[in-house]
Amino acid sequence: MSDSQTSVELPVLDISKPIDPSFLSFLAEACKKWGFFHIINHGISEDLYSKLCTLSKDLFSLPSDTKLKLGPFSSLKTYTPHFIASPYYESLRVSGPDFFASAQSSADLLSVQQSSEFSEILQEYGSKMAELSKKIVEALLTSLGDGFEKKYYESEFKNCSGYLRINNYSPPEKLEDEVEGLGMHTDMSCVTIVYQDEIGGLQVRSQEGKWMDIRPCEGTLVVNIGDILQAWSNEKLRSSEHRVILKQPANRFSLAFFWCFEDEKVITAPDEVVGEGNVKLYKPFVCIDYLKFRENNEKGKFEKIGFTVRDFAGNGLQIDG
Ligand SMILES: O=C(O)CCC(=O)C(=O)O
Ligand SMILES: [Fe+2]
Questions:
Q1: The pLDDT of residue 1
Q2: 39 alpha carbon to ligand 2 midpoint, in Å?
Q3: Could you tell me the domains of the chain?
Q4: How far, in Å, CA of 197 to CA of 254, rounded?
Q5: Hey, which of 35, 284, 295, 316 has its CA 20 to 30 A from 189?
Q6: What is the pLDDT of residues 169-202, one digit of tens each?
Q7: Are 246 and 202 in contact (CB under 8 A)?
């Protein structure tokens, strides 16, 4: 890689086909190095994205005091207003597995017009994302070892569930220099599936500490590994630091779907995943305890995460690469 390179080339997994054995080593390598890869042929049409984008624009253009009916001091708490994660970021959470009901209860409180269209589309998107997440986890298990998908999918991942965040980034009108839309963080999920619009701005931090662009590409979704899968895989899969930069004075729209273990699951890497002769890098921990630890230590802020899953359950040892 030349020094001037600022964007990262990630492997592209065709999720509509059985995984090609010759591709597995590229996937495993990228997941260890970057914790990111792309998927194509995911079955979600441009038309669905454009509907989601229009509906989300309508929602975020509501007055602030209306949106705050779903804010941190409300009963639903599905809306993250500006100045919590960043002055330029706001988002709406839609929880699964009943995405329709979750979207509908938010839409009802805001008295959104076309609320049933909004909820139906989110149900369609949420359930497609859940199906994709299963296929992604199966592909990742296959990349970790021959037969691992059969061995571990049912026993470890069958109770996973997902939630969605609809993100709206609004940079200042007079944008002299780039600003951080969402500060550096790692996701707490097993895997996250991200759709970013054509504005771009998602960046991943290299192991040398350099920020690299993940460029948007039509028809392609970004997948990243989260903290709890990093721990479960004994760091064979990496949860890397990423952020969002706003370089243009234009609104940016993105969707992040987080696929997570059930709250009560005890997370521990199976011996076979750790591999003979390697040490377990994490003590077993209960999933919800880590989520609470992060909540308490971040106070809702994303900037400069001080603590990660290593601080919470790491045994103090570190492997390179
Ligand atoms: O907006 C994006 O592209 C990424 C958002 C993200 O990293 C997150 O919500 O965790
Ligand atoms: Fe993220």
A1: 43
A2: 17
A3: 12-313 (2.60.120.330)
A4: 6
A5: 316
A6: 999 988 889 999 999 999 999 999 999 999 999 9
A7: no
